[in-house]
Amino acid sequence: MTSETIATDQDAIIVGAGLGGLRTMIELRKLGISFRCFEAGDGIGGTWFWNRYPGARTDSESWTYCYQFDRELFEEWDWHDRFPGQVEVENYLNFVADRFDLRKDIQLGATVKGATFDEDSSTWTVTLEDGTTSTSRYFIVAGGPLAARYTPDLKGIDDFGGTWVHTSRWPEGGIDVRGKRVGIVGTGATGVQLIPELAKEAANVTVFQRTPNYVIPARNHPLSDTDRRSLKADADRISNVVREHWFGMDLGMAGRLTTDVTPEEQQKILEWGWEIGGFHFIFETFDDIFLTHEANEVVAEFVRNKIRQIVKDPETAEKLAPKGYPIASKRVPLGHYYYEAYNRPNVDLVDVSENALAEATSSGITLADGTHYDVDILVFATGFDASTGSITRMDIRGRDGLTIQESWAEGAQTHLGVATKGFPNLFMVFGPQTPFANFPPVAENIVEFLSQALTHLEESGAATMEATQEAMDEWAEHLDVLLNALVLSEGERVRSWFVGANIPGKPHKVLFHFGGVAAYCASTQAVIDEGWKGFVFEGSSAKKDAVPA
CB neighbours (10 Å) of residue 153? Predict the structure, then answer.
């Protein structure tokens, strides 16, 4: 590319107006980089727009599930719950969009079908499903790691005579389950939140469980005015702790190992963590839970015993008690009276680990052994094509027409989870191989890194920024080392979406960085300090005035 100015509709196109996309827009506005955001939904919020199922709630405490970059923003918003629900988080993100005047640059109801890189002009052409196109220098994907829903290919589903729905497309007006027989497939974080809510009104809830989950209590409660004043006064400390904590939360470390105390003391400490609620149980009880099988088993057995104490029917309790895999090798959900729901006479648990769902019929579900269950409403709480799905479901074509699906045929390849070779100026906010942690602090770090990258591009006059194969190989090796150092490495055995094992045919490859938020931040800063190691900058480009879209 020469120094001749190439006209584009805007400097950057952003996909997604959720948590990551909004933060990206705020940063680009500050840099003076023009942008257009395309959002498939009819409202702002990303996952918090789509996931309207009853019980949808964060597993992060409200004062950490928010932006930390702006002290005034932190002080202006009042959270109402310790763990905010879907409506509250959606309202917060809409408040952010209004406060920073972002709506004028967001096009709602605009699904991106694909994007093609033009090597002659070093620009991207983005095509929407309605056929309209838009061009930019930078193409930023902020669809989120949990955006591409996964619905099993169940034989006969089109013949089902009742209502069926995936939880991430719950109707805005809700579903009336009163007096109905409801079948729910999946007991991950979504199912854990939804099942107790359905049980309050449905005539019967049949839960089809493949793999039982370790569920720890949330202990949610409303925040008082005093709580809110205290949190706002403590904003600087909270921000610092969140950026340093392994999981990006307002938590400390235990400062002890299971081997430092007696078995009796272990139980007392775990009891404290169980009662205080949230991830205090995981992070503030013992520091070796993730490091040794012996410590992990102490905690895992504690949870199993809690299940046996809570669930009155011994057979049901044993079905719910996870065995044969470590706690935290699958995402640990927070429960809101989850196990208690199985004490209700209208809730039945069906183990389908060795007797799988075979087909849907006009009246319900049939298992492999021929057992049939009549249901009026069928709910799939089956999760997502995590991390990569929101990217690979678009037709993205880079150099020489290479598609992202072809590039990632054997698993995602990235440098820092931000960029991938063959796709210049394609940047990902919370793409594959970024930290598995509380989303907001991770997204903020990525956006701050991209801010410096784009500033460097603009000031240097380079046309493109692209990851190298060597850097991607080193990053993948680094992620493998991190995962294998933890007991979480057994997660693949239980079809964990940490490695893509929940999706049939998806390559099994580490999809997240398990070294913690602070370590990831150190890695991104090291790349900058070492002269953008692992990236190549090519061509030349003049700074241009955007042509309005």
Answer: 7
Which of 430, 448, 427, 449 lies closest to 439 in space, CA to CA?
430
| pLDDT per 10-residue tile (average), the chain, 549 residues | 59 98 98 98 96 97 97 97 98 98 98 97 97 97 92 95 96 95 97 98 98 97 98 96 95 96 98 98 97 97 98 98 93 97 98 96 97 98 91 97 96 97 97 95 97 96 97 96 85 69 86 94 97 94 42
Measured between alpha carbons, how far is residue 492 from residues 166, 387, 410, 486 in Å?
Answer: 24, 16, 16, 13
Residues 144/20, Cβ–Cβ less than 8 Å: yes
| Strand spans (E) along 19-128 | 35-39, 106-108, 112-118, 123-128
Q: Rounded to whole angstroms, what are the CA distances from 408 to 345, 395, 416, 482?
A: 48, 13, 15, 21
Q: Which of 507, 512, 508 is nearest to 486 (CA)?
A: 512
> pTM value?
0.95
User: Do 110 and 40 touch, CB atoms closer than 8 A?
Assistant: yes
Decide: helix, strand or coil at residue 15.
strand
- DSSP assigned state of 70: -
Which 8-state DSSP code applies to residue 162? S
Amino acid present at 77: W
Q: Which residues contact 114 (CB under 8 A, 6 or more apart)?
A: 126, 127, 394, 395, 396, 397
What residues contact residue 417 under an 8 Å CB cut-off, 6+ apart?
428, 430, 431, 432, 433, 434, 446, 475, 513
Residues paired with 108 in a beta bridge: 39
**CATH classification for the domain delimited by 151-214+328-383, as one of 3.30.70.100, 3.50.50.60, 3.40.50.150, 3.90.550.10:** 3.50.50.60
What pLDDT score does 543 carry?
45
- Using only C-alpha atoms, the chain has a radius of gyration, in whole angstroms, of 24
List, for residues 226-282, the tens digit of each pLDDT value: 999 999 999 999 999 999 999 999 999 999 999 999 999 999 999 999 999 999 999
CB 433 within 8 A of CB 412: yes
Distance CA 329, CA 497 (A): 10
> What's the pLDDT score for residue 495?
67
Fold of domain 10-148+386-538: FAD/NAD(P)-binding domain (3.50.50)
Domain 151-214+328-383 in the same topology as domain 10-148+386-538: yes
- Give the β-pairing of 10-15 and 364-367: unpaired
What pLDDT, on the 0 to 100 scale, is given for residue 507? 87
**Looking at residue 328, what is its pLDDT?**
92
Are 510 and 492 a contacting pair, CB within 8 Å?
Answer: no
User: Would you kindly state where each structural domain of the chain is located, as residue ranges?
Assistant: 10-148+386-538, 151-214+328-383, 251-317
